[in-house]
Structure formats: structure tokens, C-alpha cells
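>> Question from a student workshop board

For tomorrow's exercise we were told to take the sequence and the ligand below, predict the bound structure, and bring the output to class. My setup keeps failing. Could a helper post the expected result so I can at least see what it should look like? The ligand is phenylalanine.
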Amino acid sequence: MSQPIPNTPERQSIHGQWSSRWTFILAATGAAVGLGNIWKFPYLTGEHGGSAFVLVYMLCVAALGIPMMMAEVMLGRRGRQSPVNTMQTLAEETGGSQWWQIIGWSGTVAGVLILSYYSVIGGWTIAYVFKSAGGLFHGATAEGAQQLFEDFVSSPWIVFFWHSFFMVMTMVVVARGVKSGLEKAVQFLMPALFVLLLMVMGYSMTTGYFSKSLAFLFTPDFSRLSGTSMLTAMGQAFFSLSLGMGTIMIYGSYVPKGTSIAGTSCAIAGADTAVALIAGMAIFPIVFANGMEPGAGPSLIFQTLPVAFGQMTGGLVFGVLFFVLLLVAAWTSSISLIEPAVTLLIERFAMTRAAASFWCGVLTWLLGLGTIFSFNIWSGTTLFNMTFFGLLDFLTSNLMLPLGGILIAVFAGWIMTQDSSQSELNITNPRGYKAWILLIRFIAPIAVLIVLLHAVGFL
Ligand code: PHE
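>> Workshop helper replied:
Here is what the output should look like for this input. Compare the format with yours to find the bug.
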């Protein structure tokens, strides 16, 4: 399998290595598949009118997502350290400026910030598992479900409890390390996720609205395509594949030598897209069967679906399964969000993994309080018209991720020599490498810059 690749420094990661290419695919798919697939993708598709959005999304994954993912895995595997130190080493190696470390710093900080609110929503999800199991949605009206949600998020102590619980779940896995923590968790959780997803979809097929949902998702209707939906699709592809912030880079640093970067990146992007599409196929039949609005927005999952579950036969069981599914997806993404920070502390301060995980966990947990309070005692406190939670989401998804993405594309395409990237990627087909370098040098930075300018209101 592994052939010696010329011009490739042989570094070893002090944090360990995936046992096989398969576990890397599982772990990176676990990082990518998250709330973005099951919560954000369906509601964005609903808001942007369905199929045309889905088509643009898939094009963005293929033309932008896969080359960017290959770049991140490549940098990670070549540097074999935390994103900050990887970028430092690679900048030294290429004679580039030390400023390139900013890619690592921005990603590491973004990971902590995203996890701080991700964990709060992860906590909501656990609470919703219990609410569904307790039959709380039975016979609920739309107003009832909305009231239930609002009462829940406005009780800081209850949310605080579930947020803390979710943080502990995440840090326990991270503290155990690459092989006995991350790898063990995804080996069990990812198959469970797929089974749950298929079960919920199987249930949706019995509602009688499955073909209507397929038409909504897949019959192209370009009249509904606007500039904004195209940019939203591009941004979502980026967020969903976890690009631009070093999580794919750190996971790439544990990849065994000789693994095909192009092949694994295609597999991960394909699996992530498949989960988003299946989630759509699972959710829309339930929405249509109950005469609900597909464009309900972010509340689709926590306010709309519970009403549907409360009305349908078998809704209790499938409601529980659905929220467990959401929880698993959020959990495997969370462990990837904090890994860049944990590895940085281990490398820079010679901490043990347990201590580094503890301190990163405490910091993120404290920051999470800001998100909890955004829905109650601080809901009136805003900056630039956004709550603390809104600001974090905007700062990370709309600014830090695209900015990180542009810098990664420029570094991989322009700063690293083509000899190095070619030997590291080791693509046998010369046309394949040409296509990659074209996409990473020109298309990706320009496309992501447009998304960034759109996000800050310039376009
Ligand atoms: N990709 C994850 C999702 O779809 C979110 C995420 C973003 C995770 C960035 C890690 C890094 O929910």
C-alpha cells in the first residue's frame, strides 16, 4: 500500500495515528456530519425553495469542497502537529512568512467558539430526547410546541445542566486520545448514526408524502434560484464539510502515510452530502404530511417536527430516535472542534492530554454560558443587533471559516511548491492534479471571497 513518496518529510505525530484509512474516513465523516446536515441543511433547503438549492449545493461540494478538503488533509499530514504548529513548520519549510500561523490560530479559536454554542444546542438535543420519550409532544399544537421550546430555552438552569452534560460527554472522549477516544467513539457512533437515519427515513416513507418530498428536493426548478441562495449554498457546503478551521487539518495529521488523499476526501464529502440529502428525505415527508411549512426556518427541528411526532402513529418512538440521531451527529462533530486547541496545549505547554482536555473543556463550557443567557437573561443585550449567540455564529461561520478557507487555499496553491503538493497528494492521473491546482489556486479563493463579502454585506 504505502510507497515511498519522494520529497516528503517523514514526520510523526506525537498524538498518534488512525489505525487505518477507514477509521480516518469514519472520524472525518463524523466531524463533518453534524447539526449542519440534520438541522441547517433541511431548513435552508426549505427556505430556498428546494431542488435548485440542492443542485447548487452539490456542485459547490464537488468543485469547492473536495479540493479544499484535500488541501487541508494534505497540510495536516505534512505537518503532523496541531494546526498552529503545522502552519509554523510548513511556513518555515517553504520559506513563507510566519504570519501563515494565523490559519492555525484562527481555526483553533473558531473551534472553541463554535463548540461553546454547539454544546448548548447539543444539550437541547439531549433534553428533547427525554421530552419526546416522556410523551410531552403527544397531541401538541404548533403553539403548544413553540411555547414548550420557548419555556425550555428561557430556563437558564435547565439548559445549563444539559450543556454541562454534553461538554463532559465530549471531553471524556477527547481526553482518551486518538486511538482509545476518538477512534473508538466513531467506530461505534457512526454506524449507529446511519442506522438511525435509515430508520427515520424508512418511517417517512410510510407517510405517503415521500414522492412529494423527492420532487421538492430533486426536480430542478431554476426559477427559484437567486444570487443569495447560491451564496448560501456555497457557505453551507463549507460549514457542513467543516472546512476552513483546522479540524480536517488535525484529523489529516493522523492519517497513515500512503493513504490516498483524493480518494478519502471524495468519500468523506460524498458521505456528508448523502447524510444531508437523506436527512432531507426523512424530514420533509413528515413536514408535508402534517401540512406544515417547509420554509419554517431554524425552528423546523425543535418546533415543527415535535408537533408532527405528537400527531403521528409511532411518533413517540421515532421522535426519540430522531433526537438521538441529532445528538450523535452533534457529539462526533464536537470532539473534532476542540482537538486543534487540545493538541496545541499539549505541544506548547507539555501538558498531558487529560489536563489539556480539562482546561479546554472548562474554557469552552464557560463561554457556552453566554449562549445560554442569549435566550433568556441577556436576550435584550445586543451588539451590532445580534445576541451573544448570534454574534458568535456570525463571527465564526460567516467570517472566520471563509477567511481561514481563503488562506488555506492560497497557502496550498501558491506558497507550497507544486513539487511538494504533487508528491504529498500523489495523484497518479496528471489531469487530476492539474484540475486540483486550478481549483485551489483560482476558483476556491475567489468563490470563498465572494461568500465572505456577501456575508459582511458588500455583495
Ligand atoms: N460540519 C459540522 C456540521 O455540519 C459543523 C462543524 C463546522 C464542525 C466546523 C466542525 C468544524 O454541523
